[in-house]
Amino acid sequence: MKHVAVLMGGWSAEREVSLNSGKACADAAERAGYRVTRVDVTRDIARVLGDLKPDVVLNVLHGPPGEDGALQGLLEIIGIPYSHSGVMASAVAMQKDIAKTVLRAAGVPVPGGMVANRLDAARAHMLPPPYVIKPLSEGSSVGVFIVRADHAYPPQELSRPDWKYGEQVLVEPFIPGKELTCAVIADKPTDVIEIIAHTAFYDYEAKYAPGGSTHVLPAPVPADVYAECQRLAVKAHHALGCRGVTRADFRYDDSKPGVTGISCLEVNTQPGMTATSLVPELAAYAGMSFPDLARWMIEDASLGR
Fold this sequence. Notes:
The chain has 305 residues and is an alpha+beta fold.
């Protein structure tokens, strides 16, 4: 029986989400017949894994160090196969400005915008409102602000001394329209979900609180838009060098003709796996149960790519 260490928790701003994702994946892996050890990751993770000697790691960390290439590098050094993307893809996808450069070069449409110092972004509008401010390397909409047209000033939270999401932020034009997402599993796209947030935008609460959002599957968009989101999800996955499961998030401005209103916001190399998460829902819609999904991620685990 294969011994799987499910890594979760950690110390990022997404710790609680990771614990929930980890529990769900560990439960699913046990149902799939694996011997599972649940590990709440601390800075002595190398020693812990050395003592456990698992056959494979199911990486369910969100944010640093599990999503930015750091943990992947450690696992490469100690030689334990792991799920999801490798060192380079994880590092590039997590750094939003670099990821946008790579995606744009590959022909994946992304929003415009700029990188700015957080204090400058708090001092004056960097773009005409509405626009979006987000940390360069956080997930789950942590530290994200939408500056509306009626906002006289940028968000002053950016200038707080206890701000903990980095000195640089990404400032992007706000794209109106539908929030869409599509996953890639085994190099193939899933169906496409429309997300309707019941909060000001698709923020942390909308993503993880019960009733925070409604998922419409399949997304009610024109067939060419649906197919283009699927094509772009796979293209983005390959452009960043990803493997395993990823999820690409899009905005679709239906006031524009054809597929020209689609923009890829980001690619998640460690997508959420909680009870309200999108990838398990997309997998189930395709006939893949959560234990089947866990089994696929575990058997897909590897080193060196």
